[in-house]
Amino acid sequence: MAAAIESGEVSVREVVETALHRIETLDVGLDAFTLVMHNSARVAAAHADTEIATGRYRGPLHGIPISIKDLIDVAGVPTTAASQVTDRSPASADAPVVARLKDAGAILIGKCNLHEFAFGTTGEDSAFGPTRHPLDANRSPGGSSSGSAVSVATGMATASVGTDTGGSIRIPAAACGLVGLKPTFGELPGDGIVPLGPSLDHVGPLTRCVADARLMFTAMGGASLSAGSVQTTPLTRRLGCPRPYFFDQLDDGVRATFEQALERLTDDAWTVSTSPIRHARDTATVCLHLLLPEAAAVHASSLDRHGATYTQGVRLRLEMGRYVLAEDYARAQRGRAVLTQTVDDALGDHDALVLPSLAIPAPRLGADTVEIAGRSVSVRNVTLRLTQLFNATGHPAMSIPCGLTTGGLPVGLQLVGRRSHTAQLLDVAEACEQSLFLQQPT
Amino acid sequence: MTGDDWLDAAKADAQRRQLPALEPLLEALAKATRQLRAAEWNLNAASRPTHDADPPDDAPTT
Predict the structure, then answer these.
(1) Parallel, antiparallel or unpaired: strands A202-207 and A271-274
(2) pLDDT digits over A425-436, tens only?
(3) Record: fold of A2-227
(4) Are β-strands A352-356 and A238-241 bridged in parallel, bridged antiparallel, or unpaired?
(5) Is A137 within 8 Å of chain B by CB?
(6) Complex-level ipTM
């Protein structure tokens, strides 16, 4: 699309009108958007066309329609966080990641639905109603960046910006067959974004391919896109697979599809060896004791004034955090440090770690539990199981599509890279994507 | 404060605040906290670990 825009084969106005038309026709029933920015998108499109006509092409995001999770400030419109608790006054400025995307020429098409305050993995608890999966309206697209994922999966936007505190970019990316990137902690600025767990919060893109994720990540970091579109590091093509703990609770269809993906990688000269992450079984309790008190602190005054206005599930989880003792938060911080070292150890000399992104296919809306190997397990726990460790440790992690279950639902393959080496992780992901794509039956 | 003392106090406070729906969540949190406190990597002034063994693991490996 970028080449067609640059050459004038297609105008930005046409691209934006197509996106708006898709939203108008497809979003009824999906509820991916909380706000469609018709007028400002059309004004920006006209401006973008004028720039191209006068020789001021900004790069591969020039004129590309993108959506923004409604947890992130866009100047002039409210940031609702999909909650009745937030006021509806417009944000006074763009979040830096938004401003940088606009500088790169992207067109903001609208703001996307999410699980209230990003505190959930399904998108069900929202003041705007649940976002529905585009392949099955009875299923969740995953969350909390539920609307972002659906907007990209359906072509209503070319890319989206989401946030990820325990997996909220990678989970919906996996459930919807997309690429989702959580960079290294702190690599992209979190200013202008409603926090959930400030030591766990990340912002990143959801896209249809790794190349687009690289463009978005590069632009969101404020770097030039001309240097951001090429592979930067030589790869050993060695991947470590942390099977213990992470493979204990996997849906049979997800397991089969993921193992087939590993076979396609090894068929294309990748070496995949087991590389356990020590103490991984402590992941859930460490993350719980980090997130709950941090979220409670962020929401304390709102809980006191508007507690009954939150959705019940989100309110109760926030209230739970008010009971975590300081000594247990300190223990969790110690656990975080230990786990960070063990992930570094597991990475060793591998290019990346590889594991599934989401242990189950897109869950059914309204389901609190799901059956895995004859056991009933919590949907919330199992959706977080494979992703949240890397929020605590800060390692960059991303989900890429790796196939479908026999039921036709997408499965995600998660890659985890070294801290502060997100560009290298993108290199690995792009190479894996090529291997998986080349090996897929036509 | 022991885990049991904490749970009793937390549940009583939730009742006082008219949030009875919190009770099962607090019980789940208490279970998670017991696991956190039992983790071998915890610092303990009276008992310094001499090694850093991996926890038991019955997961399949290949």
Answers:
(1) unpaired
(2) 999 999 999 999
(3) Amidase signature (AS) enzymes (3.90.1300)
(4) parallel
(5) no
(6) 0.91
